[in-house]
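#data-curation
PF: Archiving a pair of folding outputs for the training set. Convention for this channel: one message per protein, sequence first, structure tokens after, nothing in between. First:
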Amino acid sequence: MDTLQNMRVFVRVVDAGSFTAAAQQLNSTTAYASRAVSDLEAHLRTRLLNRTTRRIALTEAGERYLQRCEQILAYVDQAEAEAGDAHARPSGKLKVHSMTSLGQHYTVPAVSRYQQRYPDVQVELTLAQRTPDLLDEGYDVALVVGRELPDSGLVSQRLGATFSVACASPAYLEKYGVPRRPEDLAHHVCLGMVAPGFHWDEWTLAGPNGEERITLAEPPFRVNVAEALAVGIREGMGIGVLPLYSAIAGLRHGDFVWVMPEYRSHEMNIYALYPSRQYLDAKIRTWVDFLRDELPATIDADEAALQQFVRTT
């Protein structure tokens, strides 16, 4: 028995004053309306309506039940309207997880621009160097960086691609010299990055001779966040590989020098992950669409700035 639907029929019968009038309003039959009320009474073991051939009248129990039905149905209608509105209009809290460096350089500025367009959305952003369990942890969207994604059952949207560059401080290069080719790194201090897609003991460098894999000695310093690695590079601790979005500001300000500018490293895709395509909440849909439109232009701007920097050094 569909109790909620039978409640709607019961309220309509009372409002219309007869089973026949209610059936016409519901585009149904008198028998259907009568059976719906009878099923309710059987379920409740209480008579709700006194019936004659000419009229109906609420019993005392029917009057109390009618009030509750009207309240319940009003709440249901409100809930359905709010849920439907969530599908149509972005509003409420959007819980986003992002890998740390990506979040600091790309996600937070994107949130600012997104909220200018959709001011009714409140964004709760968590930064961490991992891919979360969206369902168990309650996130709406996760932004991750990797060459490819494992089969997780989640919906993935590729937002763009980026790469890393080898950097050192001017002071370090002045003291130890400038490596020109990947094999020269054997004579330098190379710092380690411990993060998804990175191997502290191996760098993959793509350059004029294709991809070259360089095995590194045990680094004196390794860390799991690019911004901390950037501090070590700036302090002259050694050469490190930084994601472009973590390196560009230091290169622009002269804190870093792009070592071996013919080479790039650790080319990665940027993905948005979310649980389902069906009945997608408007705030999730618009956030992913916004990133898909905005992020490639931001990445292109960083790449253009990098090339301009190389030409002027």
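PF: Second:
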Amino acid sequence: MVKYLVENSLGRYWIKMLQSRGDTRTESEIAQKYGWVYFCPSDDSDKEIVLVKKQVEELKFIDPAMGSGHILVYAFDILMQIYRSEGYSDRQSVRSILTNNLFGLEIDDRAYQLAYFSLMMKAREFDRRVLTRNLNLNIMPVPVASRMNQQYVKDINITSNQKLILDKVVDLFRYGNEYGSAIVLPQGLNENEVLTQLEKREETFIGQLGLNDVAEMDQISSLRKIIKATKLLSSEYDVGVTNPPYMGLRRMDDNLKKYIKKQYPSHNQDMFSVFMRVMSRLVTNGHGYIGMITQHSWMFIKTFEKTRKYLNLNQTIINMAHLGARAFGDISGEVVQTTAFILLNKPAKNYVGSYERLVGGSSEEDKKRLYLECIKYPNSSSMYRISQHSFDKIPGSPIAYWAPQALINDFEKGKPLGQLVDAKVGLQTGNNKRFLRYWYEVDFNNIFFDAHNTAEAKQSGKKWFPYNKGGSYRKWYGNYDYVVNWQNDGYEIKHFTDSRGKVRSRPQNTDYYFKNAITWPLITSGNFSMRFRTFGSIHDVAGMSAFSDNPNTLKLILGLGNSSIMKQLVGLLNPTINYQIGDIERIPVLHMDKTTESAVIQQVDHAISLSKHDWDQQEESWDYGMPSVIQYEGSNLEQSLNTWLSDLQSRYYSMKNTEQNINGIFNRLYGLDQTEDSIESPISVRLPESRETTVFAVNSLLSYFIGCVFGRYSLDKLGLAYAGGNWNESVYGSFKPNQDNLILLTDRDYFGDERDIINRLKEFLRITFAPSSLNDNLHFIAKTLDPKKSERGESDEQIIRNYFLNDFYKDHDKTYHKRPIYWQFNSGRNDGFKALMYLHRYNKDELAMVRNYLHDLQAAYSNTIKFNDEQETKSSTAREKNQYRKDTVKLNKKVTEVIKYDEALQHQALAQVSIDLDDGVVVNHAKVQGNEELFSKL
């Protein structure tokens, strides 16, 4: 980006100087002569930009945060080209560039040394003797006046007024390494008068060696550096280019923060925005050019609104290369998103700026290619030309250069969304680990789902209430994941304090708790989505929410929120990954007639219904009934699955058609052709034509089966059968849960009863499908779980057994967001003892019962080893003998592991640990184990 910045600022200034002399060539022709491939020609509207006539020696270029000098070095190259074109020799050019044209400041001494070295090495390419010429460069580190004696300033022979000003200057430079070029100097200091007096004092002490004389010379040297820096900071420059420091206000120390807030009231959000103002002060008003690369947040975010306002009133955007993320090869991810831009330091009302949209480039090289295409092909789809004053129509004046004009005009015609609904932030608990749980962690009977207000919630006496935390991308309905401890009107949260007694929680806008709402996540991965949140929930600061007593108003906004228009509108106001309340409140909502309103509400109701049905097909929903493949007709699992997939396909295309209808309504309403709507978004229901959907169906069936084994579910009723509270045996008729709340995961069937998982699965499948289809169902499950092994002819039962032994818990842990409700006992890498237990049925005698299972399994291992020994003796072939021998080795490892595991299990069994479901999975998981390792990790 250095070449872009320098060619489009310094290069542009020189081109304008040539044209002011009468050069009739176009900007492109002049740039091509110099080989400036990154130069972007101005629009024809630049006629009002007139530069003064200057000689090249008078042109002054500054980088006030020069770092190691990359910008100055490239500016040197450009200036050498200019000097040569003006007929100067290389030696003359080098001397003039270093002493007349280039200026720079830097707070880091080491960086300054690198900049000095780089600049001199560049100069040496054109003048081999430059290092011996004793040239005084105009670059320096910002001095620090920590050693300056205040009395010394008072003793200098200058007027009292000058002493007063000089004293203020010295005070500022006491923090030179913090303030840097952001120092705002007092007016009226006569630097030359001060330097004259310093020279007189210096003459007196030259050649003397007394301690006082050395101290005097040190004071003179320090003050001389301060005066030099003062002259650099008080001068005006024709061109300024910099890559400024990045530091948010919160990261600044108290002294710097106080200074910046005072001196830069409209630019103090970050040091890069401070330097935007610094540059406007250093560069000549009226014809100077500024080039910068910064984070792009100032273009959109509300906190930078004053910065944008200053720019719109005082400066003109000539060109902007909007880079976005991944602009630099050594910085990955989406956090650092940048923009490079060129400003004229005066307002030019009619100027039409050029904007290159490079955010889609996936790498530094990709963005470079896109930019050069914009220069070569001005009608490129990545090139935009617009007057910055068009942005004034949008609330907050974001630099939304890519917006269709019709959409910009909609901000003038529409009513802000915030005037139609109440957009509010919600509860900040102060400690989510303490007060939040996934709903499936706690006793289900202690959750109140249907509160309409805080009074009802308190009256219920329940502890847990649904909590809207935002969640991942999902439209229309869903992300009902969390519950919050709001017992007794949130007493614990409201009185939660730190060690100093300060309340850490913030229960904001409590009058809106439990009301119908539309909600969107604070942070997204790029796609904006809204959902309808039915009454009964508390919202937090990340689950952004808007409220209205009229459900239809919410649905109209929801329709707009999930339309392609909304993605563009939100993108204009804030194209980052954070969508604050203030961003959404400014969205323009256009008037709809009754017919249009009715059409939107009808489509939205249908979309909510489809999305809810999709959400409720997964165990993460508290309205989950049972797997669809059990409910759909079919003589076997595969036929039932195909029936479900057919219905799923119908629902998918119904949702797709519904969203297209909604997009069409809002496209017409907001004045955009369908062709202008190029933003596609994922459909928020499960895609039918994919292996993932089949795998999901089979995994869901097996997970439900485990739930039936433990009594969480019953084949005789939809939904939860037991998730805490009192056990009711009568709800389990068709399929009885395991009495001991345990199911073994073994490499083979050692018992032939309910302790073996495949025996229980066969029983489950005989009940849920036609008994005659058992083998077909086992085969279908096996080939879905592991197609390759199934094709090779491996036993169906063994494939399924291996899944439960090796992969089921991983899938379960992932599905339940590392808060599993089925815990896996695990003795170690040899799988000596693995078993599943249901958290909600745990009691303090559980581990003792587990030891009984372990001892039975250990005995079974010993019997199998004995059998192997007998068979090895009887075997007639070496192959058979080797198979029995290998199996015995494996079993012996299991026995050794089990014996060691039993010691740990016994220790915890004797402790008889009790748990409280309200403490959540993480706490209880650790509590039951104590200092042992009994379970697979979360």
